Amino acid sequence: MKRPISGILAGATLLLTLTLAALPAQGSTAIELVDGAINRVLDTLREDEARAKAEPEYVLEVIEREIIPLVDIDGMARLILARHWRDATDAQRTRFTEAFRDTLLNAYGVRLADYLDRQVNVIARRSREDERMAVVATEIVVGSGQPNITVNYRLRPVEGDWRVFDVEAEGLSFVGNFRNHFNTEINRDGLDALIERLEAGDRSLVEETIDDAASGGDASGG
């Protein structure tokens, strides 16, 4: 039976948050960074599991402190907006980047506490790295006789340190799917309208993107 794409992408979004929360600011290879990251953040949350489940603001506080310096937020925003980024003012770029980050974290970050029993394996033989980009392959162990879910992280060096800028789940690009959906929103209502919805915390923008992928939308965008 085919696994629901919406569930895969939602899980991948959570796993992206999980991995980024644990990546050290400096390290050796991208593979080593990701390999050590997941267990560290799970262990941290498990140490105070009751609080993590009872206080969403605590989880968000931890994520805000740990994630933002370690992900290429600006690069991700540029890739998602694509040609609209070139046409946007500096103020629009800043507002979009901050609003998208906050909406995504509020939609999925608080759910990390529900995934503390999840096992994730880094697959070194399927990973690759050069001076310009790295791809780190992982698998989410589903169990119950179901095949594992493949999730690949794309990293690139930013000011000398590896930063995650995209994640692919079962071949579907996180950035590509948001680019496609947001492009439709912008063409219909304009960039300011999209930003205002994000600034208002409209989680449906995130959820609609996942649903579009589930219905067969591609991730090529532009």
Automatic annotation (TrEMBL):
A Pfam family assignment: MlaC
Domain of life, source organism: Bacteria
Keywords: Signal
Membrane-spanning intervals of the chain: none
Keyword Signal applies: yes
Annotated signal sequence range: 1-27
Protein name listed in UniProt: Toluene tolerance protein
